[in-house]
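Q: Could you fold this chain for me?
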Amino acid sequence: MNKFLKYSLLIFSLILWVNYSSAQLSPGELSNAHANLEGISNCTKCHILGKKETSSKCLECHKEIKQLINKNRGYHASEEAEGKNCAECHGEHFGRDFKIVRFDDKTFDHNLTGFGLKGKHTKNKCADCHKTELIKNKTSQKKGGSYLGLETECLSCHNDFHEKTLSSDCLSCHNQEAFRPAPGFDHNKTKFDLRGAHQKVDCVKCHKTETRNGKQFQEFSGIKFESCTNCHADEHKGKFGDNCLKCHTIFTFKETKVLKDFKHDKTNFALRGQHQKLDCKKCHKGKLTTPIKHKNCVDCHKDYHEGQLAKDGKITDCNSCHTVNSFKTSSFSFEKHKQTKFVLDGAHLATPCFACHKKTEKWNFNIKNQCIDCHENIHKNYMDIKYIPKNDCRNCHTVSNWKEVTFDHNKTDFKLEGKHHEAGCRDCHFKPLPNGKIVQQFSILTNSCSNCHANKHQNQFADNGETRCTRCHTNKNWIPDKFNHNTARFKLDGKHENVVCIKCHKPSADTREKFIKYKFEDISCTSCH
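A: Sure. Below is the predicted structure, expressed as structure tokens.
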């Protein structure tokens, strides 16, 4: 055989071996996305020889995902994907039509991406945000679309309405519910805090709207405010300078300062709070120089409480409870209340003033300090008055919690012993009726066990119509610890000592109500044997 023939056979054998090996080594056909990698010569582009895990190879190609993982951003850095191999979610070698990415946009938890959807964002469809023109990372714009490449800053998706005149941090003023209004914005934190009549001016009066770059633009920064004339027309044409506040106030332009440079603080009555807003004529009825009383509030104001708070016939001044800023709010504190006959304590500390002092349209401060002045005595006619003298609920209850009872039951004819210590008051003293109503039982209760407990023995042990359970039982349990069979009519001796009770004391034959029969008319041997 010549050399040419030998080489021909060798090459042909190698071709057959490669084709056979390829069919044996490849677990299946690749998907359409990776179809260009088909063939045994391309295996090492995705696989590492001798290793099953291929994630590092995947990330060599899918650089946009690797960048996000390195920055600890996006879904692949979330707790759901962290630590997983790529192949666990994105399988291959299952055929050309196999979907490597199986994604359900209806059930996907967007919080896993690090950008939780809130407000209006929850109503958006995926395609509203995940579109090519919004993707800043161009490596994410692959064939077939991508959910990668979006940034989380507001301006990466939304137009800058303020044209870079304000901070790019939109959430410092706005929220995700709506663009208007801006609940986070506080004008008083700017260099021009709104006071007086400025608080009622519509924003657009100062912040004009114009068209800029073909879009509506409202100017918020760069507005001059050093002088009143920056915004207001000078009615006096500069005759009195540009400082309007020398004569006018910020509350209304129509009111002027009557006396030039006059300061009320120089008098014995400095104007504070609401007094600063008053027209001089409100107090000064005649000449401005005529002295007026001003020592007490009632010199000018009517006593709203009609003498209820008078002491020794003299009306207490309003400033003991109110301030000049507002009559509606009260400065009367808990510490001051402690100085009254009724000290606020416990749950009363959380009770608003009007709950006690404004039962009707008018405030009432002539309140006694008994519980029944505000609370109904629900135990009236049910409990002996000696246990609630003067209808004072504090004999049993505390002001901290109505359900917290401090009553000493040993003061009654029925001392609580054994299991009775564990029973709540309502278990014995509040009886539910079939119609759903509840009846209180205090004075009507006797010491008889049958008041609370059913007679399981069907009056077998009744004595003169009354069954005294304590003859056999204790308050610790229902086991008849006190019963001694040897004191009964039938003394246990001999073989009888080891016979269990149920052998002799069997359930009755009465089908209406089952009970154990303990007392027998006939105790002869033939009654059992």
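A (continued): The CA atoms of residues 352 and 358 lie 10 Å apart.
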